[in-house]
Backbone:
């Protein structure tokens, strides 16, 4: 098939991570389930797939340090799209799956993509024991029966010129964003279910061009699902997940629209205490732009959260962290400087 | 001055309209036949290329099962989970009403972009509609027209697909083909990850199949198209004879004009340039007319060609003719080049025309005895080349080289042969008029020789091709009688139904003979292997070309194998050779059978052995033996008992009629081209005679003056033309026989892999002979009529006025 079909198709039902334009998303999600504030996620059941919702993703980003002392970044993502709510038999299932994987080094960014149909066993999420996969890319729980399935994971993926195997162990609790997992995405009230596990300690191996590199570091896991995630006039988003050296974490996002945009986020204490940020509390401004693959994207940001005394700037590990996938976007590890030094990941779509 | 000179040159055509018509017609016809063949071939090649490119089969490797069986869907999942980038495809035949469809089910998400012909995301298709029930069938517009009104999923159109092919989602295709969870092959993405687990550990039953660099279809059908092309060239060559004659005449008649123009001061260079311009204008005009006419002929012939190709090779060819610039360009170029080549000698004469030399009363194209001998020597040389090509060459090209050299050589020899025959006839002639008749005929030979050569070619081609088609037909009919010995041929809708039917038939018929086959790989090539149940039907009827004495017993015992002639020839197999089947079983060749109309390799083993090798073989087809007078009744009972559609029980006569119909259509094109070639040759004679008629006045006038009436002279003219035609016909017989032999024993063997016994059809020659006599008489009729109507004064003028 022409590769473009996926692009067109994704644009038609779009997901924030794949934003290019969001025309049509403001319409009502007929037939699909909608997030309800009154029904927060329940675990472990909600670690699994929600086929009645239009889009869903399991998203892992890792800031790593190699035995060679260099910084690395790794990404593992599984997306689910429903052409129609519910499941069907074998090939007739209206569920589609897409995987993205990447490794970033200071001088290299490699990425890969996989697509699969639901219903035939090629891709999907199984609850007990928790396991998500597309083709050979896997995310398997190795947590004991009494602990949260996401508390210990094995993650692997391989693409042209790269592969990785990471062992993840959570050192803190799951974090629910927004109102107990109900995360508002626009001033008009569009919302999604959204929770994270930002407390992973990582140990594993990267393979780059046939060379193995032992790595350690931190990782952040997101799981989000919705049927109508963005407002009609929103054109893209910038998303931040930061590990500060103090052990505190910050998730923040800025949805761009014709006006001032919509920012929100969550401040996470070192112990996992959650503090949802009211809309507008967090400010994020681009400091420096660069041309990447013919697009102009911000590669340095200035973020501030006055009531926490936060005033930081980010610097990309590799400016060219462009995801060369059918729907392309910028996703890469950053170093944080300023009031709260640390490391993190930035995602920018719709540029 | 230039313009005046040009109009002076052109004015000739206004005064000789018939000549102009002849020139344009000859050139247009020649171009038309050639372009028609080109257009048909181009159309067919386009269809093959599209068929070969379906889901990238010409570019991408695939994984298939060694034994050709379907792949389980689990294997696909296992490969994907091991990191192999493969995409599943299911392919099968779908019947809709009376039509058949090659259904290809793809998985659009994993299909490599190189394999994508149809954009599933296009507005009129859409992924969701494509993959979710009821799904969509994407087909070529003409396939859609054929499927109109059938109960198919909704149709969408794509020009990218070849006719007869439908593309759908794999899930939809699995349901339509009733093969859930089955996959025909796995397309490999061109770039795979390094360090993948080897195929042998994940799916040992699979092997990698390289992309088909050249489609089977284009290889199989090569010979067919080469045949057509050869015919096209033959027609073109014959057409050029006409052009040559017409241009020659025009030149002779314009000698005074040319001389006058030169005398008036037109530079030689300008005169030659004007003459070339004139030829260019005429040839372009005729070329355009010819190519347009050619498309007309192609459009008429294409359905027959398509039917032949479908019948012979299973190749689908688009019935809709598309206009291709290359055909236009080539047709025009050929017309211009042909005209200039035919006119080269005339242009040379213009260039060397002595300005003040007196007009010479001479025939326009006299050939010296020396030239005649030289030409004959060249002809003999060509015949030697032809013989050499047969003896030491091989391959289809050698066959056609031999064929071409033989025809051309024979044509070149013709003038000398005719000259000798006429000399002999003159010596044997009694009486003054008879002797004059032969001598004058011989004197005319040089002027007519080109036209007669054209006639020889056309007659020989007709006789030769006629003999080939006739021989083929006789053999084919005889072979059909042997091969189709059973009274009824049944196709059940499932293996289970087949089992039930066969037990139902056991008590009601003389015998039930399975027609079951599986694909085996023998000597590296896929071969359809049939299982034979030992029965008197085979022992008495099967058309064996070579056989061991105990052939049927050894087949029944499971130790022997029969192969068809095609396979034996291609792989140089002989009785007693060993072949290895799946599972490493070795079988001895105990017989070779003729298998006309099938270009592919085929073999037969005992039914028990087939079932042992392929327990899950498709058992739906079988034949029934019963007394012929009870066959119709049994067929009706069978249809009633199992509620079978009429098409599923076919009687012997219908199968034979069907096979013969395919056969007839196959050669319909050949026959049409044959007739057209003969027509062009007749026209060539007509043009030549017309050319000569004017100039012969000088030779006829003295004879008239001596007392022969114009009526008598005219009659003699017609007789002369008929005498030359019949001599040419006689000469064409051995040439035709040689051609037939070459076609049957050399070209056919190379092209189809079978040799046919040669039969001769003297009645055909008689018919052809009369046809050529009639056309010669008709061609001579108009000049003769003109002669009768001549005023005596015109004849008297010959003595008064040197031309």
Residues:
């Amino acid at each position: 098939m022409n590769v473009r079909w996926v692009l067109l198709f994704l644009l038609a039902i779009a997901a924030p991570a794949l934003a290019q334009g969001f025309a049509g998303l403001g319409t009502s999600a007929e037939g699909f389930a909608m997030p309800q504030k009154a029904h927060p996620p329940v675990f472990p059941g909600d670690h699994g797939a929600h086929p009645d919702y239009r889009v869903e993703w399991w998203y892992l980003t890792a800031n790593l340090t190699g035995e060679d002392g260099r910084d690395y970044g790794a990404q593992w993502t599984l997306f689910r799209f429903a052409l129609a709510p519910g499941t069907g038999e074998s090939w007739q299932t209206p569920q589609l799956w897409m995987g993205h994987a990447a490794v970033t080094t200071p001088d290299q960014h490699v990425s890969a993509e996989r697509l699969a149909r639901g219903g035939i066993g090629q891709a999907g999420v199984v609850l007990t024991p928790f396991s998500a996969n597309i083709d050979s890319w896997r995310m398997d729980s190795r947590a004991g029966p009494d602990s949260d399935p996401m508390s210990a994971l094995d993650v692997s993926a391989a693409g042209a010129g790269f592969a990785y195997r990471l062992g993840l162990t959570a050192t803190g609790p799951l974090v629910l964003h927004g109102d107990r997992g109900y995360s508002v995405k626009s001033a008009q009230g569009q919302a999604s279910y959204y929770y994270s596990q930002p407390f992973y300690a990582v140990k594993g191996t990267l393979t780059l061009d046939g060379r193995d590199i032992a790595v350690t570091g931190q990782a952040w896991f997101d799981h989000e699902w919705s049927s109508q995630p963005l407002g009609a006039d929103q054109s893209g988003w910038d998303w931040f997940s930061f590990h500060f050296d103090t052990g505190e974490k910050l998730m923040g996002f800025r949805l761009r629209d014709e006006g001032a945009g919509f920012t929100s986020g969550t401040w996470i204490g070192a112990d996992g205490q959650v503090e949802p940020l009211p809309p507008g509390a967090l400010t994020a401004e681009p400091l420096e732009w660069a041309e990447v693959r013919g697009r102009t994207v911000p590669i340095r940001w200035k973020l501030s959260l006055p009531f926490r005394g936060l005033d930081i700037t980010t610097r990309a590990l590799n400016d060219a962290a462009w995801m060369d996938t059918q729907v392309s976007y910028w996703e890469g590890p950053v170093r944080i400087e300023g009031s709260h030094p640390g490391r993190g990941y930035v995602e920018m779509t719709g540029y | 001055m230039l313009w005046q000179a040009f109009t002076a040159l052109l004015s000739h055509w206004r005064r000789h309209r018939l000549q102009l018509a002849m020139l344009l017609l000859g050139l247009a016809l020649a171009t038309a036949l050639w372009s028609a063949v080109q257009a048909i071939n181009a159309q067919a090649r386009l269809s093959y290329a599209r068929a070969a490119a379906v889901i990238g089969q010409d570019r991408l490797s695939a994984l298939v099962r060694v034994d050709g069986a379907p792949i389980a869907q689990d294997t696909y999942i296992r490969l994907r989970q091991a990191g192999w980038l493969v995409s599943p495809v299911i392919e099968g035949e779908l019947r809709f009403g009376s039509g058949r469809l090659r259904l290809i089910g793809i998985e659009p998400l994993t299909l490599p972009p190189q394999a994508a012909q149809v954009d599933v995301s296009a507005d009129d298709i859409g992924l969701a509609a494509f993959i979710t029930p009821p799904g969509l069938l994407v087909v070529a517009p003409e396939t859609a027209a054929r499927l109109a009104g059938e109960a198919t999923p909704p149709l969408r159109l794509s020009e990218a697909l070849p006719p007869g092919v439908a593309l759908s989602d794999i899930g939809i295709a699995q349901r339509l083909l009733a093969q859930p969870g089955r996959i025909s092959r796995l397309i490999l993405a061109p770039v795979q990850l390094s360090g993948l687990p080897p195929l042998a550990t994940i799916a040992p039953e699979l092997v990698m199949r390289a992309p088909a660099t050249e489609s089977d279809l284009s290889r199989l059908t090569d010979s067919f198209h080469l045949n057509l092309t050869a015919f096209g060239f033959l027609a073109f060559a014959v057409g050029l004879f006409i052009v040559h004659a017409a241009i020659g005449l025009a030149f002779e008649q314009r000698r005074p004009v040319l001389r006058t123009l030169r005398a008036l001061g037109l530079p030689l260079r300008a005169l030659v340039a004007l003459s070339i311009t004139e030829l260019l204008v005429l040839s372009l005009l005729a070329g355009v007319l010819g190519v347009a006419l050619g498309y007309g002929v192609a459009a008429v012939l294409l359905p027959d060609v398509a039917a032949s190709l479908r019948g012979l090779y299973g190749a689908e060819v688009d019935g809709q003719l598309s206009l291709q610039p290359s055909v236009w360009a080539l047709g025009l170029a050929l017309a211009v080049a042909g005209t200039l080549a035919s006119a080269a000698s005339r242009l040379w004469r213009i260039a060397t025309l002595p300005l003040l030399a007196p007009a010479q009363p001479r025939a326009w194209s006299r050939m010296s005895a020396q030239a005649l001998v030289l030409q004959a020597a060249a002809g003999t040389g060509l015949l030697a080349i032809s013989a050499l090509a047969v003896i030491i060459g091989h391959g289809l090209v050698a066959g056609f080289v031999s064929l071409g050299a033989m025809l051309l050589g024979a044509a070149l020899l013709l003038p000398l042969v005719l000259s000798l025959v006429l000399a002999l006839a003159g010596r044997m002639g009694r009486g003054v008029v008879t002797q004059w008749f032969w001598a004058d005929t011989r004197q005319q030979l040089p002027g007519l020789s080109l036209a007669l050569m054209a006639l020889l070619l056309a007659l020989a081609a007709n006789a030769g091709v006629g003999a080939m088609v006739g021989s083929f037909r006789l053999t084919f009919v005889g072979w059909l009688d042997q091969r189709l010995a059973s009274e009824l041929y049944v196709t059940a809708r499932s293996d289970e139904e087949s089992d039930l039917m066969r037990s139902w038939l056991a008590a009601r018929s003389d015998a039930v003979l399975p027609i079951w086959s599986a694909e085996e790989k023998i000597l590296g090539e896929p071969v359809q292997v049939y299982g034979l149940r030992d029965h008197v039907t085979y022992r008495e009827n099967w058309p064996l070309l070579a056989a061991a004495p105990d052939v049927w017993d050894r087949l029944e015992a499971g130790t022997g194998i029969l192969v068809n002639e095609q396979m034996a020839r291609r792989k140089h197999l002989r009785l007693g050779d060993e072949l290895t089947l799946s599972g490493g079983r070795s079988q001895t060749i105990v017989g070779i059978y003729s298998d006309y109309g099938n270009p592919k390799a085929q073999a037969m083993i005992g039914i028990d052995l087939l079932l042992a090798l392929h327990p899950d073989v498709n058992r739906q087809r079988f034949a029934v033996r019963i007394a012929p007078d009870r066959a119709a009744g049994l067929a009706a009972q069978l249809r009633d008992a199992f509620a079978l559609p009429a098409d599923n029980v076919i009687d012997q006569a219908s199968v034979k009629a069907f096979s013969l119909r395919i056969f007839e259509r196959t050669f319909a094109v050949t026959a049409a081209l044959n007739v057209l070639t003969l027509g062009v040759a007749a026209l060539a004679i007509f043009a030549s005679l017309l050319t000569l008629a004017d100039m012969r006045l000088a030779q006829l006038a003295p004879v008239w003056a001596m007392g022969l009436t114009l009526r008598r002279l005219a009659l003699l003219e017609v007789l002369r033309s008929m005498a030359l035609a019949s001599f040419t016909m006689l000469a064409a017989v051995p040439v035709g026989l040689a051609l037939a032999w070459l076609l049957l024993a050399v070209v056919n063997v190379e092209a189809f892999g079978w040799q046919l016994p040669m039969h001769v059809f003297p009645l055909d020659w008689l018919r052809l002979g009369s046809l050529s006599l009639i056309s010669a008489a008709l061609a001579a009729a108009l000049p003769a009529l003109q002669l009768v109507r001549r005023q005596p004064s015109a004849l008297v003028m010959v003595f008064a006025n040197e031309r």
